[in-house]
Every structure is written in structure tokens, then in C-alpha cells.
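Practice problem: predict the structure.
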Amino acid sequence: MNSAHDGWSRGLTAAASTAGLGVVLLAAIGVEAVAVAQSWGARYWLFGGAAAVVVGLLALLRGRQRLWPALAGVTIAAGTILTARVAGLPAEPGPAMALALSVLLGSALRALPPVPAGALAAAGLAVVAGTQLAARPAAGPTAVTTINGAAWLAAVAVGLSLRTLDSRAAATAEKVRHEERLELARELHDVVAHHITGMLIQAQAARLVARRSPETAADSLAGIETAGADALAAMRRVVGLLRDIDDAAPATPGPEQLGALTARFARRGPAVRVCVPDDTAAWPAEVTSTVYRVVQEALTNVSRHATQARSVSVTVAEEPPGVTVEVVDDAPVAAARSRGGYGLIGMRERVEALGGTLRTGPGPQAGWTVHATLPLPAREPA
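Answer:
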């Protein structure tokens, strides 16, 4: 239901992938051992088998490391080629090592910067060429060269494909974050402009009042002070955000408009129960607009990913340390398995830009929960 659950799910997926790779590597080592034993004799497999186990362990235990395991794997493969040629052993790298080496190279090509990734790809191709040169065949590539060449091509193809997908996903996510920051910055700009305009009007009125009845000027000065404090609090939140002044400023929706939003959603989706506090006038405009955006995005996700949901609950409350927003649906467990996407990125960016927190995940029995907490700034002292 929170980030800890997401981390646990990712850890479980990674463990399952590692276990599956381990099973495949063990199977490849076993097949290779049987083939060498039948053609050369069992003792001829020991050297190549030990080297394959080492490279396989590097592939299984690489974790987030990409450079050193891949470099060590290529070095070991090159060493086995030379040793096999000098000692008269079966040609290396065998199928098991070729598989492990392809995993290491593919992971490196996916994650490393271009220069080291390209260097490792070239080193892998050199291993394939070395296999062919060490065999000294009469004509054409040997079976071992073919296996290693196919494994290298697979590593390059998969690694570059995943690298491209990762780059596109990162670019799209960054675009979503940037757009969300611009939208929030526009709203904050309008809030501050409103406060400053009010301050100017009250300051002009105070000058006129002070000439005729100085004792009543205190009320105007108090209003200027309040507006200034609100503007200062909003300006502090806009630090680090950008604004495109050429764009039209959007309206600033607040909790009072949630009724219209949920009514539109209920007309084409499940029933919605809404609970909103009566007094939201003291909330800053950037907080009220974020409440609206969180509910809007959560309901959009329900319509896209939880078509089997029968009801949705929207709860907005003011409690320490600020405003909380919770949207819960009752979709079946299968429908609540994963609800990621770029809308969630934008929602999280908006909430965290205001110093809040966002938790999303499946409910304890069924459905999906979105829970956001937005701090309310303390008013500047007089």
C-alpha cells in the first residue's frame, strides 16, 4: 500500500528473475558437461565447467553493478580461450559461459554510459573472434564460434532495445514532471499576483484614510500585512519552479469543485462517496488546487484500470500535519495489481513540490488506495 510494498514487490520480482536465470545456467552447464564427457571424456570438462560457474556467478550476483562483472566475465572468457588452445582442451567459451557472458554484456549495454558500454561490446566481439582464431578451422565458423556469436548478437540486441526503452521512458517521465511543475508554477504565480494587487489597493486606500482619520488606518495596514504574509508563503513554495509566462493561466480549482468532478465521473463510472470539510477557505490556493488534481488523477486511473470497481470513496480532511486526501476503490485484486503510469509521476511531482507525501498501492483485501498528505504552512508572525 505504500512505497515499502512497492519495494518488496520489486525485490520479489528481481529474486524470481535471478532464480530463473540460475536454473537456466545450471541446465546449460549440465548439458555442456554431458556433451563434453561423451566426446572428449569427463575430465576434459572440469576446466571449462569451473570457468562457466565463475562467470555464471558473476551474472547472478551482479546486482546494480554493470561494469566490473562484465569486464571480469570478458577477461575470464579470453583466458579460457588461450588456455584451451595451449592445453588441447575443448574449445571455449562453451554454451554455458556464452549464456552468462551475454547476460553480463546485455546488462552493461543497457545501463552503462555509451563509452564503456561500447568498449565492452567490442570486447565481447573480440572474444567471439578469438574463439574462431583459436580453433583454426579448415573452412567456415565452428559450432562454438556460432554459439558465441549468436549469444553476442542477442546481448547487443536486447541490451540496446532495453536501453532505448529506458531512455524513452525517462524522457517521457521528465516531460510529465516538467509540465506539472509549470502548471503548479502558473497557479502559484496567479495567487501571488492576486495578493500583491490587493496589497497595492489597500496601501493606496491607507494613504487616503491616514490623511483624514489616522486612527482607522490600522485596519488597512493589518490587511496589507496579512496579504504580504500569504504572498511570501506562496513565493517560498514557487522557488525552484519555472513558469512559462506566454501560457494562459489556468483556473485554480479547489475542494468546493470536487462535487462537480465526482458527479461527472459517476455518470460514466461507479458511484462516488465524497467527504470534504466545510471550511477550506483558510487553505492556500496551491493546496486546494493540488487536492483537486490528486482526486482527478485518482479517478482517471479508476476509469482506466479498474473498470470492475463498483464504488469509490473520496475523503478530504484537515488534520495534523496538514490536509489529507484519500481515494479508495473496491476493484477486484486482479484489477488492482498495478496502476503505474505517467499520471502518477505528475501527481507525485505536484505533491512533493509542496513538501507533501504520496502513497499508492493495493488495499489490504481489494481495490487501490491513493493517499496524499499536504502540509499547511504556518502563518508568518506579526
